Amino acid sequence: MFKVIFTILLISCSSISWSAKFSLDKFNIEINSNFLGEEVVLFGQKDDGKDLIIIFEGTEKQGKLFKKSKKGLFWINNRKDLDKIPSFFAIFSTPKKSINEIFLIPSITRSHFLIQSSFSEKLYQIREALRVKGLYFEDELQSVEGSLFINKFKIPDNISAGNIKVNLYEIKDNKVKNFSQKKLNIQKKGITSRFETMLEEQSLVYAVILVIFSIVFSLISNWLFRRR
Amino acid sequence: MNFYLPIAEISINIYVLLSLGVGIGFISGLFGIGGGFISSPLLILVGVPPAVAVGSTTVQVFASTSTGVINHYQKKNIDYQMGITMIVGGVFGTLTGVLLLNNLQNIGAIDNYLSSIYVVLLLGTAIFILYETAKVNIFYKNKKFKLHQHSWIHGLPFKFKYRKSKLYISILAPLFIGFGIGLLTGFTGIGGGFILIPCMIYLLGMTTISVIGTSLFNITIISLISLFLQIAINQNVDFVLAIILIVSSSLGAAIASRVIEKLDQENLKVLFGVLLVIIASFLLYELFRTPNNLYRIDYV
Questions:
Q1: Is the dihedral of CA B94, A216, A227, B1 positive or negative?
Q2: How far is CA A21 from CA A139, A149, A178, B53, B88, in A?
Q3: In whole angstroms, what is the distance from residue B72 CA to residue B164 CA?
Q4: For B238, which of B5, B55, B107, B154 is 20 to 30 Å away at the CA?
């Protein structure tokens, strides 16, 4: 069943936007009130004799990294302020390459802050913190029928809105032979987006509406539930 | 079935959230409390970020007390002089609490501090309830004891006549009590009725007739101020979460109002005390256990 879907997707992509050797089953994801994360299918074709590394890198955002350490009986958070943390980071490769193997390819690591150095404790901590949130992972691309590959993965429900750059690197002898890029767009839509925008840009209006709603809902619920 | 909370930025099982709301409303209805001091820690335990749990609980507290205020306004059970004095103190307390929450959130210590405070509040309330129940039923059975006794509070300066409550006491006492409750509301999201009412009866010596109405008046205004401050400073109030809590807790309160007469009040109090100890134990466990993950990232 999955192979059939994959083949259909591959054929459809070849007729639409098959400029590089990979594609996704969707390039737009909407975050609305029903959003529980989204499964994305990554698929394509690789050249024989070359390894493939595909890196998904979300928009860089400011953030705080907390590390727990024990002081007395309590676990205390130590904070580090960070200027640029990708909102999502995933590495797919075929054949499977460990992060340490990818560190040996400087032309890749130079382009991605999160894997810039194998010795950085800070970057390791960021990767671990993102992994906990489901926002960082490494996986192998599954080969199907010769040179075709496919992988399914989940964009988690805590993903931030923004573009995720999908970078494909063809590797031979630890050197990048070919590179192509696509974008996966994640947008907040509907009432979810409006609430967030209103809270950020018109907090007074948000508060007034919330107060009115809470009084009205409280009165209606009291009336509904207590009358019978 | 999961549901996405836009400000908390997580999806959560709607049935868990509804059961939580109904449960909180049920307990509130049985014991005549706002339920904030149960809902905040429970929301944290089910995975809502602590700051969002605090902010959204404030809305629930405001909603549940505002309808009560209307009833007491109609019955003229509110001592406005006393209420406004406490609100003046409460405004400063709330602002301090909200800024403290913001500061602790920035340094990443919010979960430890909030959990510790909830543990103290929950255990303190549980001990108080269990002690009061034991006092009435075991220690002082068939004996009368005074509710109000004169204390050092009645010797404080700047005395003022509160006509409705027939009190001539220092303005400092309600100001400080208001400040303390405001601080608690701003920092933890709870209304603080379970602390305010004993303070008004035992410390200020107010009559029980005006205590409930005045405390509701105070909590409604303070939670309203806190709500605006939380939104302006911390941006931590989740609209969807708040509305779900309001509706489901109203249902819980309605169920409670129907079964309350069929239940033995003293047994209920003991049960409530035990429930508070259980919630506090979970929080204690979370505080001291070795965390599964040593690293955490919060985006700004």
A1: negative
A2: 18, 10, 10, 46, 68
A3: 14
A4: B107
Domains of chain A: 2-188 (2.60.40), 190-228 (no CATH)
Estimate the crossing angle of helix B80-107 against helix B208-229, to 10 degrees.
Answer: 40
- A 118-177 → B contacts, CB under 8 A: 125-126, 128-130, 132-133, 157-158, 160
ipTM: 0.78
CA distance A141 to A147: 11
3-state helix, strand, coil in chain A (%, to 5): 35, 40, 25
Distance CA(B63)–CA(B86), nearest Å, equals 20
Torsional class of B205: left (φ above 0), alpha (ψ -120 to 50), beta (otherwise): left
Strand A89-94 relative to strand A136-140, pairing: parallel
Residues of B in contact with A219 (CB under 8 A): 67
Give A133 to chain B, closest Cα distance, Å: 8
Residue B110 vs residues A226, B48, B116, B290: alpha-carbon distances, Å:
38, 13, 10, 17
- Domain map (residue ranges) of chain B: 2-288
**Which A residues, 37 through 56, put their C-beta within 8 Å of a C-beta on chain B?**
37
pLDDT tens for chain B, 300 residues long, are 777 887 887 888 889 999 998 888 888 777 767 778 788 888 888 888 888 998 898 888 888 888 778 878 888 888 898 899 999 999 999 999 999 988 888 877 788 888 888 899 889 888 888 887 777 677 666 655 555 556 677 777 788 888 877 778 888 988 999 999 999 888 888 888 878 888 888 788 887 778 888 888 898 999 999 999 889 888 888 888 988 888 888 888 888 877 777 777 777 778 888 888 988 898 888 888 888 888 888 877
Angle subtended at Cα B54 by Cα B52 and Cα B58, rounded to the nearest 5 degrees: 115
- 193-222 in chain A: CB under 8 A from chain B: 193, 195-196, 199-200, 203-204, 206-207, 210-211, 213-215, 217-219, 221-222
| Contact criterion met (CB below 8 Å) for A89 and A130 | yes
CA B152 to chain centre: 27
* A–B CB contacts, 8 A cutoff, strictly below: 171
* Nearest chain A residue to B224, by CA: A211
CB-facing half-sphere around the CA of A93: CA atoms within 13 A? 18
Three-state SS for B92?
A: helix
3-state helix, strand, coil in chain B (%, to 5): 75, 5, 20
